[in-house]
């Protein structure tokens, strides 16, 4: 008998001598805790015998892999996985993630909001919430203001974005006894206020100070920041769960119109983390005029220079045969623009869409865009629009540079399949096979890794971006990343399978769709879908970048196909043919 914490394995002497023929459960791990109402067991055993979990016969693949799901009760759940002469005992705990019940008189711990320091403009609305004893009178004192909080017991929450992958992305109605909310507008500027919550019930009153202070900002005295990161991450709100906006180039200056914890709201509407900025002392609100604009053709791109007085925030949008650049905090005094006959641009239009916002629309000659780069040189904004890669006719992909990225590596293991084989290794096998297929077709292939090594996401992104348009050597034509998926605890691992493709910038959409269709149709695989997704390796914009999930490590059938050498070779060949087809269609 071998005993592990939370896991007991009983092995006969014969099986101990042949570990490859033993019962194995690779997921969930020992003493696993989860807040889901079910769990799947991923593992394998020789196909000659039968596997039971808690005396229930389970389905297995031809090779003996399994991934059945079982319901979980609240608290401790015990499972026995049985194969002839072998048992694995597992303990799984389902924890309660529901909101803490209110006390008889008082506030639930950590329920008062705002729970971090915030700053808002004078006259702007500020809201408060608390979970406290039901049927009480709850108020917030903010300086000379008193805000009544009203019962709001029914709340509608949204699951995480990942819930879409298990068909559970619908709004969730929750009843939270003792939930109170209320809002007010800031009436005085410049002072810092500490909200005081007050609860009264049956002639008893208790008070509690909010953990977050509130500062009202005067529009005449707004702080000014400068972006110090190479590409400041701008978001729709003050958290990493809020969506990304166009990155802000290094050097951008903007006024701060709001704060929430470590996050800053900038004057054009985007939020940025304070770590990516520095405060400019005694600065006035950044504003700029723009006059003439000039362009020139480089070996692999068209460069357009926008002379400005201050580096202002920018927004970029790619459309069908259009590329739109918006300059915020800018007023046009433009009379002259030079744009010669161009291989990708048919016309450049501009308009002042608000008193402080100028929009430039490049009308393009073709639908497909090949990437862009934007940066500030001093106060001038420099935009490079990539030209199509130059192809030679010797072989189908001659003259084209293709970057291949095998996901994970080193200590970043990725998911494990039923046998314990790791995604990081499978990713590399498939990527090398594809590299060989592409090289035979004439492509110049760049690999982010060719062995088992640690490589950060930032390093992988830089490999896509590192070729400058002014260089005569070919820039990356496309970038492809390869992964294998794994489901969360409450996913249906036994039945969820298939290939999926992910894109972020419109320039990568057609590539993602074509490769998805080729893999599904030519290999006869299931389709898990095509997704717009904000991923580190779909976000690079200097080249069309697509991420492919080639199957599920958590599905026995997908895993068998993924481990089959003949299927791996077919997969690489179909991908290479799809890449040739896509380039031929542009």
Properties at a glance:
7-stranded mixed beta sheet; 46 strands; 6 helices; 8-stranded mixed beta sheet; disordered N terminus; flat; mainly beta; 586 residues
Can you describe what's shown?
The structure is a single chain. The chain has 586 residues and is mainly beta. It has six helices and 46 strands. Strands 13, 20, 23, 24, 27, 28, 29 and 30 form an eight-stranded mixed β-sheet that branches. Strands 1, 2, 4, 7, 8, 11 and 12 form a seven-stranded mixed β-sheet that branches. Strand 34 and strand 35 form a beta hairpin. Helix 2 crosses helix 6 and helix 4 crosses helix 6. The protein starts with a strand and ends with a helix. The relative contact order is 0.10.
Question: Quick recap of the structure?
Answer:
With 586 residues, this protein is mostly beta strands.
SSE layout and pairing:
Layout: E1 2-4, E2 7-10, H1 13-16, E3 24-27, E4 32-34, E5 38-40, E6 42-44, E7 52-53, E8 56-57, E9 65-66, E10 69-71, E11 75-83, E12 86-94, E13 118-121, E14 125-131, E15 137-142, E16 145-151, E17 154-157, E18 172-175, E19 179-185, E20 192-193, E21 196-201, E22 204-209, E23 214-217, E24 224-227, E25 231-232, E26 248-249, E27 253-260, E28 263-266, E29 271-273, E30 277-279, E31 288-290, E32 294-297, E33 301-306, E34 314-319, E35 322-328, E36 330-332, E37 345-354, E38 357-364, E39 372-377, E40 380-386, E41 401-406, H2 423-440, E42 444-447, H3 457-465, E43 476-485, E44 499-503, H4 509-523, E45 527-532, E46 545-552, H5 556-563, H6 565-584
Parallel strand pairs: 4-12, 13-23, 31-36, 41-42, 41-43, 43-46, 44-45
Antiparallel strand pairs: 1-2, 2-12, 3-6, 5-10, 6-9, 7-8, 7-11, 11-12, 13-27, 14-19, 15-16, 15-21, 16-19, 17-18, 20-23, 21-22, 24-27, 24-30, 25-26, 27-28, 28-29, 32-33, 33-40, 34-35, 35-38, 37-38, 39-40, 44-46
